[in-house]
């Protein structure tokens, strides 16, 4: 099963007040986010982190936090707060690390998935029902996602702030857009 999340900001203490996250300390946030991942994502699943895995912490600490996630297949789509984790103390933290990824339609009921940290106005396959998944904007609650669906825009914020501080599954995203009329088929 495929899962998606973004904007974890492990180690970033000012994210608590800046985004009004419901954790008393950065340590509790780190452990709460890891617990939410481990509760939903099986060890054999694939988890795609769409940017900002950690910020203002050492590569060694980021490695320790990653090692607490029981999912074996964690992939990073780099965000603006992600240095390259593929070198030095960060080497090997993620199964793959890249700036952008497209997942073929065969995995998502005919929808191509376009994974990028940033929300973009247009993406490859947008007019052919491709779904863009992103983070970066720290939406509070599902309102931006709902607004996109109402407008026929197949773009979904997978960030923790928009999704109850937990990852979302591909099945949940597909169900969310089920029946939504995409502008891609409209004149």
UniProtKB/TrEMBL annotation:
Calcineurin-like phosphoesterase domain residues: 3-148
Recorded GO MF terms: hydrolase activity
Coiled-coil regions listed: none
Residues that span the membrane, as ranges: none
Entry superkingdom: Bacteria
Name under which the protein is recorded: Calcineurin-like phosphoesterase domain-containing protein
């Amino acid at each position: 099963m495929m899962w998606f999340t973004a904007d974890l900001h492990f180690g970033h203490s000012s994210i608590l007040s800046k985004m009004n996250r419901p954790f008393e300390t950065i340590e509790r946030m780190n452990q709460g986010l890891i617990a939410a991942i481990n509760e939903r994502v099986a060890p054999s699943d694939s988890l795609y982190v769409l940017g900002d895995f950690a910020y203002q912490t050492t590569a060694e600490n980021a490695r320790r936090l990653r090692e607490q996630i029981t999912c074996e297949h964690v992939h990073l789509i780099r965000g603006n707060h992600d240095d390259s984790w593929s070198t030095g103390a960060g080497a090997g933290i993620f199964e793959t690390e890249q700036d952008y990824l497209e997942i073929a339609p065969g995995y998502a009921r005919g929808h191509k998935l376009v994974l990028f940290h940033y929300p973009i106005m247009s993406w490859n396959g947008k007019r052919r029902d491709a779904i863009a998944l992103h983070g970066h904007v720290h939406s509070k609650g599902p309102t931006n996602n709902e607004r996109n669906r109402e407008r026929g825009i197949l773009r979904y914020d997978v960030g923790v702030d928009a999704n109850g501080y937990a990852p979302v599954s591909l099945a949940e995203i597909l169900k969310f857009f089920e029946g939504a009329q995409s502008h891609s088929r409209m004149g």
